[in-house]
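User: Okay, second chain of the day. Same drill as before: sequence in, structure tokens out.
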Amino acid sequence: MWLTVVWFGSLASTSGSFKVLSDTNANKSFEASAHDVDTEGTDSRYGWPSVAFWSPAAKRFLAMNKNKKAMTATARDSPLDLPFHWTYERFIVVDAGGGKVAFHNSVNNRFIKMDKKMMRSPIKAARDLPRTWDKERFQIVDAGDGMIALHSPANNRFITVDGNGNVRASSKKSANALPADWKLERLYAVPARPFLEPGSVVALHSKKHNRCIRMTEDRMETTKTGKNIPKNWPREIFTVVDAGNGMVALHNTHSSRFVSMRDKGMGTTPEKAADALPSKWGWERFVVIPTKPQENEIALWQPDHNRALASVGSKHT
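Assistant: Same drill. Structure tokens below.
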């Protein structure tokens, strides 16, 4: 299956667009290029899944529409019917400490926030949730029958989704006192397939330049191959590694190295097994931003450098 992947920072746009060729067969160079992405910084722990939240009472998915400041909800009859190209309804679950979590939408680069009303936070990367942001933190409450409710300790209220697509804060209620007859606060947490799946083996193809990226020992290049990569070309093939907080790392088995974004372009790490990505390595972690999800295109954005991968016309990066 061919997947088009383009990575962006926040996600508005970037010059780097790649087609991900899955379970591959994938040289022009690619480089880091600055673009209009807004970010800031702090720490958060890695390692949570991507989910969507569906209300059985409202028959809607919780959504963060980038054209609206308020949270919304998208109509869908079944929790199992989340279209792959829907981006507003997908959230990375971030460990916010103290038994609380935060929910980040990659295409908006913002968190869900309750501040009297339900809204989106200022722009902030998923890994950079500030310790002082309490209105973006929620407690997951068991609501019975496989459902959950999302409670804001800072507001002492639950998230409510109604049948008209409105998302609001409930009246005040403690996390351990969810009334049995409150239906609009009950949600199903639905696993949302990531746009670049950890464990998959892929190649990244630039439609604009008709080239794939490749790793040649200690440097990154691109190859003019088109989409049909010979099976015996190991340098163009990468394993997608879960790097935490919805981020990924790209590992080349042939070189036994990770793709790394440096201050002045792209490079590779010292030799390291795919399952041994150090927790302190930041330059190897990328955010996947869907740019044309209907065509499986994504952009790859590196938070530390505030840059995205981009294919260029020459062989070397």
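The first strand starts at residue 2 and ends at 5.

User: Thanks, on to the next one.
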